[in-house]
Each structure stands twice: as structure tokens, then as C-alpha cells.
Amino acid sequence: MTEMPRKTVARTARLASIPLGVAGRAVGGWGKRLAGQSADKVSAELSARTAEQVFAVLGQLKGGAMKFGQALSVFEAAVPDELAEPYREALTRLQSAAPPMSASTMHRVLAQQLGSGWRKRFTEFDDQPAAAASIGQVHRAVWHDGREVAVKVQYPGADEALLSDLRQLQRFSKLFQPLVPGMEIKPLLRELADRMVEELDYRAEAENQRTFAKAFAGDPHVLVPRVVASAPKVTVTEWVAGKPLSEIIRAGGRAERDGAGKLLCEFHFSSPARVGLLHSDPHPGNFMITPDGRLCVIDFGAVARLPEGLPRPLGVMTRLSIEGRSADLLRLMRDEGFVRAGMELDAEDVLAYLAPFAEPAAVETFHFSRRWMQRQAERVGGGQDFKTGRSLNLPPQYLLIQRVTAGATGILCQLDAHFSMRPIISRWQPGFADEAA
């Protein structure tokens, strides 16, 4: 494969094959039910085949389609277990695999970005990609000063393919709704689109990474690889070896899972205060645990700019939920624009809706589990909580923070992590540890 399939007609045809394939399998499924097979067995088979097709197509297209699949992968923990397994397998593969571009194409991009003498900047360069990302692939190399480096090269045509995917994915958004129960898929797609377009400029990503690397330099718990060189479609950063979070999710021991979860949580909550930025691409492929036990963070193409740190109202709302102060909670939410205009709400209903989300900060040690996340999805998907949720609003400035927090929570549930979250929130979330609202 020399470059990304970029023609709109070709990419649309591949994306369109997903709902057509699902429809064909549904018809076949009804036939099996008529033949006497159980509804559960047929449903499980449909889920497995649909998952395979959805993520095979997304992975093949790379670009926005693959990026969207990666973003969805962290919500897998909310899907009921009997449906989740095929998605889990396909999503895990999608986090770290995509068809590579040819060596000649990759060399052409390097020459365009680093100059015709680009080879002289390296003493070694492995033409076989070490990893694949949504809009680029990573090669292992040795810089001219002897440092091992990771070279990320953007796929030719990534920009055209990205915009084409985003248009088409909007059309097929209902297909992906089962993967994010309790969350509106179209706003998620729109917000992801904004972040993805930013990620096309590797120079901006390199600048973000430099900022993070400087803030976390020498940190005993977090490692951000330093940037060695950058261009619009190529970045060179220090190489870091480690165990991917996806591997720990699949086969990690209890201590490994708990430790990784705590490190990820601390990184998520501390970054806005320490860096003024929030890493906004939370999926397991972007995190590793190094041999010395640190969390290595990569891929800084998408960030939220929070120069004042995390918004204080979020901390106050969490605390009021834990303390059961329903009237104060509803008043604050109205003041901050979290209630739709003209909506009449019962304060106790609002508290009942939000309090379970605040539970991890309310106890000494919390167990982030798939079952807990599934319960939250089931809860907000029907009954009074569903009605309450329809009356609430997420102000635009909170949308990205909410998605990143939900994504990070999804990873914690995939890890099945047990740890104490309250001290982390007390230290880093403004408003939470205040004595009075």
C-alpha cells in the first residue's frame, strides 16, 4: 500500500459496506431464529461479525475512520459483556495496527520534510514500521548523536482522507451508538473532527509535546519523550520502551493494573495545573509503563488548552454531589449553564443522576470495573435518570474535558483498577477540597 485511499468515492464505498453488511447479517439472523436458534446466540453471532467488519474497514482506511474507532475503543467497557467481547478484540487490534505504507513512499515523505540528505541525520533507520497510528506510522531509528529515536511519518493524502471520513461517519453515526451507551454520538463526532484536523500539523503536536516534556522533566511517575526534530508531516522523538496499556488490560496482574490506573488518573488530573494543557487522545495505545514503573505518554496531536487549569465548578459539583447538597448543586448547575433554558428540574433528581458519577471520589478505595461502567450506561439510558439527563446541558467549554474524562475512566474500567482517587482529585481539581461552596 503506497498511500491512504483518498478518493471520496472509494472511501465512501468502503464505509458504506458496513451498514450494508450489517443489514445482510440481520436478515440472515432472522432466518436462523426461524430455524430454531436462540435469540441470544444469533445476537452474539451478529455482534461478532459486525464488530469484525466495522473495525476491519476502519483500520483499512486509517485516517478519520481509524481515529474514530480508536476514540470509541475506550467506551468498550460500557458495552454489556455478552456483546463486548468481539468489539474488545477488534478494538484492541485497531489501537496499534494498520496497513503500512511502502518504504519508497515513506522515503519520499522524509525527503520532502527533512531534506534530500535526510539519511545523514540518522546512523540507522529501520524501514519496517514499529507501530501504526491513525494518520501516520512510526519507525525506529538512531539519530546522528547516538540517541535511539521514534520517527513518525504522516501518510500521504491523510488530510483529504480525514475530511472525507468525517463527512461519511456523520451519515453512519447510528451504527456506532451501541458502543457509547448513554452518550450522544453526533456531538462526539463533531468534537473529534475539530481535534483531528489539528492533528494533521505535526509541528503543532511537537510543540505540545515539548511543553509536556518540559513540565514533566525529571518526574518520578510520568515520562514524556523529548522532541528531537520536527516538520509539518514528520516528528522525531526519543525512543521509549515499555509495556503498552493494552497489554496490561489483556493480561496484567493486579498490582500492575492498579498501578497503571493510578498513574493515568494522576496524569489526567495534574496536567492542566502543571502544563496548562490536557492530553485529549485517551486510548490505551498512547500509554506505556516503562521498566522503571513510570507512565510514558505519547501522541500530543490533540490537546485542550486550559491555562487556568481544570474549571473550578467541576470540583464544586463533585463535592456537592458527594455531600448530598441537592439544592446547592442545582443552583450551581443553573448558574454555570448545565441546565437547558426553561427546564424545570427536581433537585433530588439531579443529585440522583450525578451522585453515582462522583462515587470514585467519595470512597477510600474505588474499584473501576466494566460492570460499574455498564451500570452507569444502563442507568442514564432509561427511566428518571434518562429524563433528567435530557434536561441537562453540557456547555461547549466542558465538552472536550468531559470526553477525555469519560475516555480515561473507560481505560480505568478496562484495567479493572483499584486505587484511591480522592487524594488525586483533592490535590489537582480546583473546587473539590474547598471548605465551602
From TrEMBL:
Keywords: ATP-binding, Nucleotide-binding, Transferase. The keyword Transferase applies. It holds the Pfam family ABC1. GO terms for molecular function: ATP binding; transferase activity. Residues 93-308 form the ABC1 atypical kinase-like domain. Transmembrane segments: none annotated. InterPro entries: ABC1_dom (IPR004147), ADCK3_dom (IPR034646), Atypical_kinase_ADCK (IPR051409), Kinase-like_dom_sf (IPR011009). Belongs to the protein kinase superfamily. ADCK protein kinase family. This is ABC transporter ATP-binding protein. It comes from Actinokineospora fastidiosa. The lineage of its organism: Bacteria, Bacillati, Actinomycetota, Actinomycetes, Pseudonocardiales.
